[in-house]
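Example 4.3 (complexes with small molecules)
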Amino acid sequence: APPADAGHDRVTPDMIQTGSDIPAHWKQPEGNFDYTRREVMIPMRDGVKLHTVILTPKDAKNLPIILNRTPYQADGCAPNNSPHLVDAVWSGMKAWADGSFIIACQDIRGKYGSEGKYVMTRPPRGPLNPTKTDDTTDAWDTTDWLVKHLKDSNGKVGMIGSSYDGWTVVMALLHPHPALKVAAPESPMIDGWMGDDWYHYGALRQINLDYFTGQMTARGSGQSVPRENYDDYTNFLEAGSAGAYADAHGFKQLPWWNRFAAHPSYDAFWQLQALDKLVAKHPSNVPTMWLQGLWDQEDIYGAIHAWEALKEAGHGANNHLVMGPWWHSQINRDGWHIGPLKWPGNTTAQFRQDVMVPWFNHYLRGTPMKQPLPEAMIYNAVEQHWDRFNDWKVASRQKRTPLYLQAKFGLGFETPAGGSDSYVSDPAKPVPYLPRPIPAHDEDRWRTWLVHDQRFVETRPDVLSYVTPVLTKTVTVQGAPIADLYAKTTGTDVDFVVKLIDVYPGTVAGDPTMGGYELPVSLDIFRGRYRKSFAHPSPVPANQVQQYQFRLPSVNYEFKPGHRIMVQIQSSLFPLYDRNPQTYVPNILFAKPSDYTKATITIEHGAQGRSAVLLPVVAGTED
Ligand code: PG9
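Answer. The structure with D-phenylglycine bound is encoded below.
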């Protein structure tokens, strides 16, 4: 008899694969899914098709559409293969995934599944973009397609998105489709030079160079810059200038870097894509919630400046400002705390549920609002509640009281007696923005650096710390503080970092680790060459007192009795910002090692100028 396995050792055709094991089209059987997912390529006016993921609740009828346009992969909108929409979507979409909205997420032109060419924050059509399309037309064409093709929709669209996705919302608002009924740009990038992602008043945020390779070395997700050392303080110090770092890592292959590096000043390249100016020129009637974090470590400038520009231009009625106690884009995640500051609840979930979604529902399906949205809602991090303002003054209309630097490192509202203080700023030993080591990819530390205890630099000889006596009554500050320094340097260029700090009492009942904490309430950096003009930098005359005046991020804060107010001044914030060589060179990005020199910097608080932080105090300065 033949052996039992005879015939089982033959290869048959069904065992062989010469094609692909990945089918050309895979369709997930919907089974018990409470939504359908489909992917469409939506044609734009120039024929380019944009990849769009559409999530429609089962049995949808007459539902509004929530649209998000992103450079970060539309598929990421619903990363989980769950049968329940609310579990399928990422945290930022959960508020819209209760079955009462159709969700549409789109890859912008040139990224991930979309056709076309990618341009970094593609400027609006005009002198910087001579083509016939931009993210305004793409949003318009997408909205038009959605309301015509999604039969289950009620024909009304709301747009949301944070950061770059917030920028896409603002671009849509420059000429909105009539079906766009409500919008929320969250931490939108508005002016990359003045105070959002790329520069702050001319100082380069060099750790964003990773973002360039991440976004532009691949259509999908690119990689960050490879590191020699764990500590980015060392990496950037060893590289010399930001330009040398970029050159060493191949950046010359990136067209965006070459445009970027050729325009270190606020010339037409930056001016013509500043969206606060553009929204004021092309205001929309779309009810818009401009939203950002009070400690927004990436785009702290954008939302409030766009909102102020609109209010100034007479469009306050349909534009609202919201500032929560949040880091960048935290609105799309949990909001129980930021760093060591804990809130009585989940501030983001509560805001989305109590304010944002009802407000969207009002405009998307006519649901009455329990309480109208005021002009501005700004969290009071000290009293731990939201303050509602019917007239939040734009910065140019705020009254301010000088909080003067005083002798012996005092600080107070009284006219200073006179004097000055000096420090040596050494570019070989720049002041870190966090205690070392500083791996920039450590997300938690990056998200919370703006609330980091500043005691770690207080005793450095190149950091001046001025402090008030212990307060006996509350000083309430509402608005944008202004740093107003009178200073001289032995060099010909200089940076100033000014921090407004709340110094906690030495012991804090119930929260002992906060004893003596030095909490930055508002801080920023300013590059001295721009003291007279952002477009036309000029050397700083050595040894001559100059005025350096710049606006700090807006606050709604109370300095309480028992606390003290501190102002810290220093000339670097590294490696977040590139080092100023302190010798004037045409383009700091490409400063040579020999340009970096020590300088003695003197801050005046007397006859030569009364340095101060001009505070928008609303209570607490008079007896
Ligand atoms: N802050 C990021 C960004 C926005 C716009 C341009 C470049 C970067 C972001 O989080 O999207």
